[in-house]
Structures are given as structure tokens and as C-alpha cells.
């Protein structure tokens, strides 16, 4: 008789679902903050400062917007991955490593709820 289960129980899946929904809510709030700071184009009062300082300020502002854009992209991918995890829960395939077919340990799923690979499979990729 094998110790390995084919999938997580419905109760386990509901527990993961609650964790994922909580993470989605937080990630959506974070994304909104990133977008607001990206859109925020307020003047910081550099009109009366020297042209040299103003050039540095504008360069920093451009860099900041680029960084916010990168952050927003990462956050959107994270949200997409979390929503895909919810789909896997509904399909009852959540927590199954897509390479080895074994269950991903609960500890890993609580830490990285959108994981589709076990540590074993992740290490094989290196």
C-alpha cells in the first residue's frame, strides 16, 4: 500500500483556497497602490530650482516610473498565477507537481501558493 496520495482532500483544498483568496486581495491592493504611484504625476516644486537639479529630478522620476511599471507587471503576473491556482483547486489538480506528479508539500504551498513544481522538480531545472 502506498503512502503517497494522488491529490489533496477537499478540506485541504478549501484551506488553500482561503489562503489564496487572501493573497489575491492583498496583491490587488498592492497593485492598485503601484498603479496610483505610477499615474501620480504631481509636481514636487522643482520649478524654482536650478536647471541642473531639475534634470536630475526628472531623470529620477523617469527611473521611478520605469521601476513602478516593472513592479506592476510582476504584480499582475503574480495575480494571474494565484487565479490560475484557484482554477486548479476547482479542477482538484492543485498541489500536484506538473513534472513529478507527486504532491507538493503543504509547507511549500502555504509559502508559495501558486507553485506548480515541487522542490525536487525545481532543482532538476537548474
From TrEMBL:
Top-level taxon in the UniProt lineage: Bacteria
Protein name from the UniProt record: TraR/DksA C4-type zinc finger protein
Keyword terms, alphabetized = Metal-binding, Zinc, Zinc-finger
Q: Which InterPro entries match?
A: Znf_DskA_TraR (IPR000962)
Q: Which Gene3D superfamilies match?
A: DksA, coiled-coil domain
Q: Where are the zinc fingers (dksA C4-type)?
A: 97-121
What sections of the sequence does the record tag as coiled-coil?
A: none
The molecular function terms in GO held by this entry are: zinc ion binding
Sequence ranges assigned to domain Zinc finger DksA/TraR C4-type in this UniProt record? 93-122
